[in-house]
Every structure is written in structure tokens, then in C-alpha cells.
Amino acid sequence: MEIDRIDERTPNQLRPLICSRNVLNRAHGSSSWSQGDTKVLAAVYGPKAGTKKNENPERACIEVIWKPKTGQSGKLEKEYEMILKRTLQSICILTINPNTTTSVIIQVVSDDGALLPCAINAACAALVDAGIPLKHLAVAVCCGLADSGDVMLDPTKLEEQKMKAFTYLVFPNSVFSVLPEGSLQVEGEPVENGIITSVTQGLMSVSFKFVQVEDYLHCIERGRAASAKMSAFLRRSLQSQLPSDTLKAG
Amino acid sequence: MGLPNVSGDFSSEMDVDAFRRLFPLRFYERHLVESIRPDARPLGRARDTTLALGAVTSTDGSALAKIGLTTMLAAIKMEVMTPSIETPDEGCIAIDFHMPPICSPLVRPGRPAEAEPVVSKQLCDTILSSGMINMKELSLISGKAAWMAYLDIYCLDADGALFDAALLSAVAAFSHLQIPVVSMNDDGRVVIISEEHQEGKDPVNKEKRKLTLSSIPFSLTSILHKKYILADPTAEEESIMDTLVTVVLDSSGRLVSLYKPGGTVLAYTSAIQDCIALTRQRVKELRNILDEAVSGMEVD
């Protein structure tokens, strides 16, 4: 079933991705990530000595500061900060630099939907640029659910408003491994199928069946497929040595 | 009461309390192997839940919810406002979640707790997107007057699963809510009339009304740790194991929210399905508790 999208994309098509690293001079690591008209700038400072209050000094601490495009940060920004912090904590190796704080500052440049996934991708690229030890990368994608039950990837702001529900999903990137195939599987599923973060908004799935989570599982499936593409893009753009090198996804 | 030899040399001669403080994770894992938790619950069982409606008499609707030791007090105050031009026949709900220093040693006076805006936003999203409240019911005169419901939730004791308790108390407060009677005064403004001065005035809404709540959302927070799923964690469990999943289902079984903010454990499809199954059971329990509380109020 085909659904018309405003920008004539297919339901599975992502907006063009642009990632550039080392865009800021004073930051220890920085990146700018854009998906279509959504653009986020991320800067990483640290590791600095000492952890914040109420944090475990035996581990590295991550601090996230979210700056909205205009105005002061409110509840939404605080929630995004918390989600981003926990997501980054799960991909960083926190035992390497104990009793240090790494600050990640997110500046929204323009918001045209899928803002949180865009920020997660930007933060991840900035952490790599700063040389913070990571277990693996995180790839974030937004899946929208239209009234008809169709899943649309990477919706714009206008599409997000029209949809009955959408979900932000974060997956680990697909790994290259010398180990034999299957050794990295968990419960019969490859590692990159595991969900790091999931945030949903709106009602999912129809009300006439007994088991009513298909919509969500459907979103996960499509999200995984998209995350594989995005992780290939992330890998390609991180491998490029030139700091000003930008790659466009096909 | 000594624990079996797990931490090598000195656990055999160590006091249980000392072991719990020094090796919290190992202490828990020893229990998890036996499919039991230190507070004698099986892994999938939530703590005892109680609900009391009408705990605050000065408000239009209130409820006190307790899940284990976690205590939430929710209260709703109704005010008449002019609806916005975009939605002339809809009312509005403002939700605020408070964590005063009384609730936990981690909260210091003067500095708001980190969880406060997050839970507040989560509650707001859940209640609005579940469609539990028909905003049109909060309208009085189209384009002129509508209800503004101020829902304030106070956390009195924070012992884990804050969102679950907060949502339960919010839902209960809405089911206890009695919309006050209003009338038009001589200046053409809508005012709330008190019980004594009812005669001689023409009320806009005839009698005290209750909101019809369709598809009530209920939630269950679980911890994922290795292959175990621990339902309804305490604050101690939340501080030791960091992967939380909150599933919100409404009473007709639809998924309102699946919230997993990071955490070291990755959620695979089977774990997600298990969490949803646990939540589905819990929704039935919570529904009964709410129904009992509501019918208990009607008897009085």
C-alpha cells in the first residue's frame, strides 16, 4: 500500500543525511548532523576531573545540556536531556575514566521533525570526534504511524502532527566481527536488534484484536531496517579522515 | 544467617546487611537465581497497592495512591477560563508533578529533583495521548467559557516506580473529580456557585457532574537485568540496576507508551513481549483496585 508523503518520499525513505565532524574549534569534539531540514549541532567537552553530585565517582559521568533553538529550556528539553544522557551512558565505557565528567552540549539549529533521533546521532558522532571510548555506536530513527496503520520513516514536522502515533527508536550499530556468525547473537537475534531507547507518543494498534502490539512491533522491524542503512552511513562518514569531509547518503 | 559462598573468601563470615551494602549487585543476583527478591516477592509481582479517593477535601477531586512505600497525592482544582480561539469548545488540563525534599534523601531543598520535569512531561503525554479525557466535556459555553483542570501530584515518599504511582493517583483523582456548579452572574461572567447560594440562580451546568473516562491508562515499570525482568522496582533496585522499561496500556489493551530511556541492557523482542504481558496482568489488578475504590466512595 502506497501512501502519499508531502515530499514524495517512499514510506521507507529517509531524508538526506549530512554529517560533518570537527566543526567547532574550541570543543574537544563536535559534529553537526542534519536529516533534511532538521539540524543539530553537538559539542563534547571532557573528560573533566570530578563527577557531579549524586553520581557514582567510580564511573565516568556524562552530562547533557540541551539548548533549544529559541527561548529557555522547559520540561521537554529536560526530558530529552535525561533520555540522551541515559542513552549515551549505555554506549560509553564508563569504567575507563572514573571520576570524570564529560559534557555533551546539544544546540538545535532547526527542527523539522525527528529532533531527538537527530540529536542522538549528532551526539554519537561528536563523542567519536572527541575520542571518548565507546562500546559501540548508537543509531536513532523515528518511525511514524499513519491512521491507516502504515509505518513511515523519518517524518517531517508536518507529518508528525498528522500521525496518530510515532516512536523514537535507538539501536546499536551493526558490528563488523571476526567471530563466527551467530556467536554475537542474543536469544537468536543479532546484537543490533536490541533496543537501547524507545520513546513512543500516541495510541498504537487497533482495538478489535486481543493482542494489540503489532503496530509497535511493526515499527521496530522497519526501524531496524533503517538503522542498518544509517549505521552504514555513520561508519562511512566517521571513517573519512578529512575533518571537513561531508558525505551525502544516496 | 550466612549466605552461601559467592564472593570468594570473606562472604561466609560476613553479615547479610554488610554484604548487601558492599556488594549490592551480587546480593541481588544471588536472589535472582532463586527467582525471588529480597522483599520476598517473585520477580513478576508488583508491590501491594492501595488507593484512597477524596484525601484532600478542599479540592474538586483527589486521590492518594500507594504502591509499596511509594506514595503519591494527586489533587485537581477546577477553574473557569476562556478557551483558546483554535479550540473554542475544549477545556484544558495542566499537569504538574512535585518532588518536595520530604520524599527522598536525594532531593535537596531549593534545587528541583532531576526526575521532576521528566515525570511531569511523561504524565502529560500519557494522559493526553491516551484520550482518557474528552476535552469537549470540559467545555461550558462554546468560545466563552471552559474548564481548566489543574492537576498537581505530590510525591510524599519516593521508593521507586514513581511514574506508575503518579499515573495511578492521577487517574484516580480524575475518577473522583466532581465538576462544580457554575452560573452566569450579572456581568455576564461564569462563576462557581457555592452550595448554599444555589437558589435563585440558573446554573449553566445542571448538577455536579463527573467526567466519563474512556480507556483508562495504567502502567508498569520493570527492570531488565541480564535475562531477568523485575516488575515494579523499589528505589534500591532502581539504583543498582539501571535499565528501566515503562509500558503503559489502556483498559482496552492498546499500547499508549513504551518508554525505555537507555540503560545497559538491550531490549529484544521477547523481553518487550514479556514486559507487555506483565503489564497486561497488572492493568487488570489496577482496574480492580480502582473500581473498588470508586464503588467504595459511592456507598458512603
TrEMBL record, chain A:
Stretch forming the signal peptide: none
Ranges for domain Exoribonuclease phosphorolytic: 13-133
One annotated GO molecular function: RNA binding
Entry's localization field: Nucleus, Nucleolus
Location (main, coarse): nucleus
InterPro entries: ExoRNase_PH_dom1, ExoRNase_PH_dom2_sf, PNPase/RNase_PH_dom_sf, Ribosomal_Su5_D2-typ_SF, RNase_PH
Cellular component terms (Gene Ontology): cytoplasmic exosome (RNase complex); nuclear exosome (RNase complex); nucleolus
SUPFAM superfamilies per UniProt: Ribonuclease PH domain 2-like (SSF55666), Ribosomal protein S5 domain 2-like (SSF54211)
Keywords per UniProt: Exonuclease, Exosome, Hydrolase, Nuclease, Nucleus, RNA-binding, rRNA processing
Protein name from the UniProt record: Exosome complex exonuclease RRP46 homolog
Naturally occurring in which organism (per UniProt): Rhamnella rubrinervis
From TrEMBL, chain B:
Similarity annotation: Belongs to the RNase PH family.
Main location: cytoplasm
Annotated localization: Cytoplasm; Nucleus, Nucleolus
GO molecular-function terms, A-Z: mRNA 3'-UTR AU-rich region binding
Pfam families reported for this sequence: RNase_PH (PF01138), RNase_PH_C (PF03725)
Keywords noted in UniProt: Cytoplasm, Exosome, Nucleus, RNA-binding, rRNA processing
Gene Ontology process terms (BP): exonucleolytic trimming to generate mature 3'-end of 5.8S rRNA from tricistronic rRNA transcript (SSU-rRNA, 5.8S rRNA, LSU-rRNA); nuclear mRNA surveillance; nuclear polyadenylation-dependent rRNA catabolic process; rRNA catabolic process; TRAMP-dependent tRNA surveillance pathway; U1 snRNA 3'-end processing; U4 snRNA 3'-end processing; U5 snRNA 3'-end processing
Gene3D superfamilies: GHMP Kinase, N-terminal domain
The keyword rRNA processing belongs to this UniProt entry's keyword annotation: yes
Protein name per the record: Ribosomal RNA-processing protein 43
GO cellular component: cytoplasmic exosome (RNase complex); nuclear exosome (RNase complex); nucleolus
Coiled coil: none
Boundaries of every Exoribonuclease phosphorolytic domain copy: 46-180, 217-278
